[in-house]
Amino acid sequence: MPQPTMRGLGPRGFLTDEEKENLPKVDKALIKRILAYLKPYRIQFVFVFIAILLSAVVGLLPSIITGKIVDEALINKDMALLIRLLFMAFATLAASQIVGVLESYINAWISQKIIFDMKNQMYRHLQYMPHSFFTTEKQGDIITRMNTDISGVSTIISGTLSHVVSNAATVITTLVALFTMSWQLAIVGIVIIPLLILPTKRVGKNQWKIRTSSQEKNDEMNQLINESLSVSGSMLVKLFTREEREYERFEKVNSELTALNLKEQRSGSWFRVVMGMFTQVGPLLIYFAGGYLIISYTDSNLTVGTITAMVALINRLYRPVQELLNLQVDFTRSLALFTRIFEYFDMKSSIVNPQNGAKPDVACRDIVYDHVAFSYDPEIPILKDVSFTVPGGCMYAIVGPSGSGKSTIVNLIPRLYDVAAGSVKIGGTDVRDFDLSYLRSKIGVVSQETYLFNGTIRENLLYAKEDATQEELIAVCKNASIHDFIINQPEGYDTVVGNRGLKLSGGEKQRLSLARVILKDPQILILDEATSALDSISENAIQDALELLMKGRTSIVIAHRLSTILKADCILVVKDGVIAEKGDHESLLSLGGIYKELYETQFRQVLDMEGNEVQKSDYWDTVEEENNGF
Q1: Whole-angstrom distance, CA of residue 356 vs CA of residue 433
Q2: Which CATH superfamily is domain 13-182+317-347 in?
Q3: How much of the chain, in percent, has pLDDT values that exceed 90?
Q4: DSSP secondary-structure letter at 488?
Q5: What pLDDT shows up at residue 620?
Q6: How far is it, in rounded angstroms, from Cα 617 to Cα 619?
Q7: Residue of 210, 193, 340 lying closest to 264 (CA atoms)
Q8: Which of 126, 286, 315, 342 pairs with 464 at a CA distance of 20 to 30 A?
């Protein structure tokens, strides 16, 4: 009977259309590469193959002993011999099981060790892939390659490889035993094999089609559940009062899925009945042929015990023969799995750490952009001939419309991306010549999209400095105006923030991210709209901390608040990938260009909002003072 399918795979014996279209190219290099992972465990594989061979040979003995029980013990009514033979049969069964357990253990050990090696290699490889890899590849695909595909190697080693050897050993030893006992009856037993294979293929293909339709319908149901029962989805359903409509959609899909599942069950039930009948035809033919040979005195050496033993052996032959016929499909899928894994291993990082990379002092050194060009897609340039210098120890602000290339400019400094043309230099040294770890250790970045790991506040802070003391954590959190919030939590600094910081508000996450960068104590500071999730009151509370942090450091700030922009030593206006304007606030306004337009449409609105929030804050402070005085 066809085996259950894995997601994206057909049943045993069949390749899906997708698998047929993407058949792996089998060559010497691929086989050699796969064997390289098996080579360290070649001694263990020898033990596995020895165990499989022993198991195949020992597995013959119970059937042979059964024949002797009939011929020598039962017919001769020898009770002592019967007991001895039964004991031998039991001993061989026990030995076969023990050998099987030993083989399974060694197999599992090998496969888990190989998975351990491959996962470590894959994780390390992905850690050093460029940032562009993670922005272009789907996260689900990365997780699938890392977990599902590599874990599938276990099935290949402990399943496909060992099953091929085991089935081959079983078939060979069984055929030898059958033909040794009676070549005539052996041929009779083998004749039935096509009757087992052909129906299996035909019914299996039908079940495959049903199961494919069932899987598609199941995917549709999962999509519906994910959309309508998620936090955002369920809120949308309630706000538009679509509960009954969503229920009707679900009921329809559920009904269709149930019908397909019942159809598959019916198909499988009748198949099992037919196959059960066919598996009995072989033994019946052997009984018939053997009986004829004995009754007609055609074969005087043939005995009832021999016939009994051959019936037992012929049943042992059918399953491994069927398994071996699926060898091509199993082999193809195994190679395809390795090919998918190797595709990731073969991806080269475009951000290369130079040998003996430079480690110059970067404190208060100029950052120079010299005719920089960059694009994510060669057909769509993002930065075009960008040139400017940020003097050491100064703070420059970058402003511009959304999508103008502001974040791309600052991402070139820590080499999240490399320039396509030109260069970015710090203190006269091209960032591509720096030791990569050293370069990034000297740069602190607070991005607009704050990311926190699903751990405690303490663990997220210590990511910047593993050996930081509690006093240091408290100091940086006070500077970021987050300490009071933390100590008011039941677990304090050991409060779990949830997945991606879900348990914290946007402002709390951003202040915690600022505290983390303060703890890192970088020499170059990049703030990519770092206070965007803060209200004006919260921003004012940490503005002094930011000014203290930027003091004596070369800083580049992508800003949307006028209060931050006004404190910059220079303002760079970016539009369409070029530095369109440059200067201080007053001079840029007097130009009457892009900056003035941004000021009128964005910064002025924010400034008015900031003024209103400050007025509200002053009002409530006055009310509180009056109440206290009363």
Answers
A1: 9
A2: ABC transporter type 1, transmembrane domain (1.20.1560.10)
A3: 15
A4: T
A5: 37
A6: 5
A7: 210
A8: 126
Task: Tell me the two tokens of residue 148.
Answer: 């599902």
69 falls in which pLDDT band (50, 70, 90)?
confident
Report the run of H or E that residue 625 belongs to, with start and end.
helix 604-629
Measured over all CA atoms, what is the biggest interatomic distance in the chain, rounded to whole angstroms? 124
CA 21 – CA 30 distance, rounded (Å): 19
Q: In what order do the strands lie in the sheet with 421-426?
A: 383-390, 367-374, 421-426, 429-430
Q: Do 13-182+317-347 and 367-596 fold alike per CATH? A: no
Q: Taking the domains of the chain in order of start, what are their residue ranges? A: 13-182+317-347, 198-301, 367-596
**CA 630 to CA 627: how far, in whole Å?**
5
Cβ burial of 170 (10 Å; 0-12, 13-18, 19+) is buried
- 408 neighbors 383 (Cβ within 8 angstroms): yes
570-584 pLDDT, tens digit per residue, is: 999 998 889 999 998
CA distances from 117 to 2, 31, 38, 120, 157 (A): 32, 18, 11, 5, 14
Question: pTM for the whole thing?
Answer: 0.66
pLDDT reported for residue 426: 94
Q: What does the pLDDT average to over 505-523?
A: 86
Tokens representing 135?
A: 């922005």
Query: In degrees rounded to 5, what are phi and psi of residue 443?
Result: -115, 130
What is the DSSP track for 365-421?
--EEEEEEEE-SBTTB-SEEEEEEEE-TT-EEEEE-STTSSHHHHHHTTTTSS--SE
Q: What is the pLDDT of residues 211-256, one digit of tens each?
A: 667 767 877 888 888 778 877 788 788 888 888 888 998 998 888 8
Phi then psi dihedrals of residue 528, to 5 deg: -95, 85
CA-based nearest residue to 477, from 514, 520, 527, 532: 514
In the CATH scheme, what is the code of domain 367-596?
Answer: 3.40.50.300
184 alpha-carbon distance from chain centroid: 55
Residues 6+ apart with CB under 8 A from 166: 52, 55, 56, 320
Question: What whole-number distance in Å separates Cα of residue 372 and Cα of residue 420?
Answer: 7
Whether the CB-CB separation of 419 and 372 falls below 8 Å is answered with yes
CA distances from 352 to 156, 344, 374, 432 (A): 34, 17, 17, 8
Pick the residue with more confidence: 113 or 8? 113
